[in-house]
Amino acid sequence: MRTLLTTCFIIGCLLSALIGCQNEIDIRTAQYSVNGQKVYITHCQNCHGEKGEGLGNLYPPLTDTKFLEKNRQKLACIVKHGATGELEVAGKKFNNTMPASNLSAVDIAYVLTYINTKINKGKEIFPLNEVEKQLKNCQ
Amino acid sequence: MKEYKQMKSIFKLCCATGLLLGLFSCKNTSQSNLPIYGEREAVEKTVDGKQVIDTVYHTIPAFKFLNQDSVMISEKDFEGKVYIANFFFTHCPSICPTMNRNLLKIYTQYKDNDAVRFLSHSIDFKYDQPYVLKDYANKLGVSNDHWQFVSGTKADIYGIANQYLVYTAEDKNAPGGYDHQGYLVLIDKDKRIRGAYDGTNDEQVKKTNGGPTKAIERS
User: Fold this and answer.
1) Residue A55 and residue B138: Cβ atoms within 8 Å?
2) How far is B107 from chain A (nearest CA, A)?
3) Residue B139 is nearest to which of A45, A57, A99, comparing CB atoms?
4) Is residue A120 less than 8 Å (CB to CB) from chain B?
């Protein structure tokens, strides 16, 4: 009887710890994406649209998840320093200049998380240390 | 019994006609309430030997601008049309993308309607040459000549902006170098201003829905 109780207790502890961890990650992602929304509205929404739909062949959409995955390593630098030259997004060619935003690393992590989880249906946070690492190697 | 059925169907018919009439009368009243903007003055005129007082409204004066195909266009191209005018520039980083995204929605709705036109003026007289405007129009998704993109001298463009009651200015401190308001200005067939909607505000843009139609049927 005693061993049964102990086992139950241990299992309970493990479970609650697991759930607790899960929640902490969810809360952090939510926090990132809420802050990211503010950054998005101020710096991105004008051109890329409220739902990241872009505008004709002027400004590319942010909903091409294949493009985002393929270019994940470049995203922080594009947001920070802008982009020029031809880009192919969602099957369309774009050739406009995106101005530099000069956002801080943490704001870039926020906004990329917002794009990842709210504009697209991803679940993952875009962590600050990944952004910092990318920014050191901008070309 | 048969008589009763007949009565009933006549009653139904009357009800339906009444409802329809009601609907139409509602529609008519809503069409007549677009205001006329700008300064106005009362003038005395002689009509059929009688002195009458008439109101003269503010109208958009004659203009000549180069369009995206390097063709000179004038107010004559808008004669008998209702049109929406605005002021923007192609590399504007602030309000223009939102304003033109919204104007594009209205254009998509009205582009096949021959009574409606669109006129975008570039306030960047240095950079926005016709070929730049042509490229912009194509990329935006403008597919016919019902939406004109024009450029001109600073004096001409900024002068006409005043006539549309839209603020424009060259300003080194503004994003992109120019400061301006994002109004979509509705002009009727008599060149009078019948509406000014904030092109960056979704709620106001929704109000333009039907605006052109009302202006067409009014004038």
Assistant:
1) no
2) 13
3) A57
4) no
Structure tokens given for B166: 């839209």
Q: Are strands B82-88 and B116-122 parallel, antiparallel or unpaired?
A: parallel
Average of pLDDT values for A118-122? 92
Which tens digits make up the pLDDT trace of B64-117?
A: 999 999 999 999 999 999 999 999 999 888 889 999 999 999 999 999 999 999
B77 forms beta bridges with: none
User: How crowded is the C-beta side of B66, counted as CA atoms within 13 Å?
Assistant: 15
Q: Are B128 and B122 in contact (CB under 8 A)?
A: yes
What would the pLDDT profile of A81-113 be if each residue is shown by its tens digit? Answer: 999 999 999 999 999 999 999 899 999 999 999
d(CA B73, CA B65): 5
A31 and chain B in contact, CB less than 8 A:
no
Domains of chain B: 60-218 (3.40.30.10)
The amino acid at residue B212 is: P
For residue B155, what pLDDT is reported? 95
- Domains in chain A: ranges and CATH: 25-127 (1.10.760.10)
Q: C-alpha angle with apex B70: B66 to B76, nearest 5 degrees?
A: 50
> What are the tokens at B69?
């195909």
* Predicted model pTM: 0.78
ipTM, two decimals: 0.75
Please report the sign of the dihedral spanned by the C-alpha atoms of residue A83, residue A89, residue A95, residue A97.
Answer: negative
